Amino acid sequence: MPRRASPLGIGLRLRLMLTLTAVAMFPIAFVSYVIVRDEVRNVTRSIDFEVHEAALSAQARFTRLLDRRELHALAAASSPRLQAAIHGHATTSLEQFARRNDLLLEVDGHTYGQRLDHAVKAPVQLVSGGKAIGSVVAQVPLDDATRRQLSAGDAKDVRLAFVRAGAAPAKDGRGVTLPLAGGTSVRAFLPGGVVSHRRNAAYVRVVEAGLLALAGLMLFTLVLARPLLRAFRWTEEQASEARIDALTGLANRRALEEILAAEISRAHRFAHQLAVVLLDLDRFKEINDSFGHAAGDVMLRAVSRLLISLARQGDTVVRWGGEEFVVVLPETDLAGAQRFAERLRRTIEAQQVGDMRTSASCGVATMLPDDTVEALLGAADQALYQAKSNGRNRTESAVRGPRPAAA
Known about the structure:
By secondary structure, the chain is an alpha+beta fold. It has ten helices and 14 strands.
C-alpha cells in the first residue's frame, strides 16, 4: 500500500515555503514601490519635456512661417503690377493679384482676395504716390494643414491645437501652451490615453522585474533550503516508520496508543461514547504452514484493505501485531460496535484470497468514564479471549460495569 504523506511533514514544508515567500516579498515589494514611484515620476518628466519641446518647436515654426508670409506681403506691396492696378483702378486685376499671391488687399476702403476667419494676420502698409492708401495683409490659416507643418518631425504621439486667448483651460491630457501672434496660442499635449498607457507600461516593467527578482530569490532560497527540507523529510520518514506498519500500511501499536488516548480525551470532553473492536484471524498459523509466510503476508494485506473499506470516516484501523487488528470507533455505543464487528467477521469469512480462506474472532468493548488506554484495550482483549474459547469465528462483548470505589 502506498505510504501517505504525513500531515506534519506537509505542514512543515508549507510553513517553510510561506516563511521564505514572506521574507522575500517584503523587501522586494518595498523596493518595487520605490522604483515604481521613481519610474512614474521619470515618465511624467519625460512627457512634460516632450510636450514642451514640441510646443517650442511649433512656436518657432509658426514664427518663421508668419515671417515668410509677411516678407511676401512686403514684396507684393512694392510690386509694379500692383501699383499699376491701383493707379488704373483695375479692380479685376487687384482681385486676381490678391488671389494669385494668397494675400488680402485693402485699398481705399475696398477689400480684394479671400478673408480667412480663422487665421493670424500680419498687415503691411500699402503706399502709392507718397501716401498710405491701404495695406497688404499676410494670412496664416489656423487649420489642419498648418498644424501638420508645425508638427513635422516631432514625436508622433504629441498633438497640437490652436487656442484663442481667453479660452477655457484644456482637458485633453498633459500639455503645454505657448503664445503665437494675434492673440492665438498653440498647445502641445499628449492625449490622456497615451499618458495612461505610458504610466501603465512603467508599472508593468517594474512588476515584471519584481516578479523575476522574486522568482530568482525564491529559487535561491529553495536551493539553500534543500538541506533543511531533506532533514524534515528524513525526520518525517523516521516518524512514519515508527507509527506505520511496514507490511500493511496501517497505523501500528505505538500509533494506536496515541490515537486512542486522544479519542478517550475527546470522548470525555464532549460526552461521546467510544468503542474498540479487537480482531484476530483464526488459525492463521495453518495458512503460513500450508501456503508459506509470503502467502500469509498476502492474506494480511487483503484483510487490511477489507477493514479500511468497511471502516467509516473518522474510524482508525490498526495492526495490533501478528494477525491481530484493532478498529477504534468514536461516537459508537456497544450495539453499534457489535454490528460493525459482525459485519467484519462475516465479510472476512466470505473473503477468499487465491486458495486461502480464514475467519476472525472479535472482541468488543466500550469505554467507561475512568478508562485508560490499557484498561479499554484489556477489556477488548478479554472479550476476544472469550470468543476464542467459545469456538472462534464469533463476536463477544466485554461485560463491564462501574468499577468499585477504592477502599
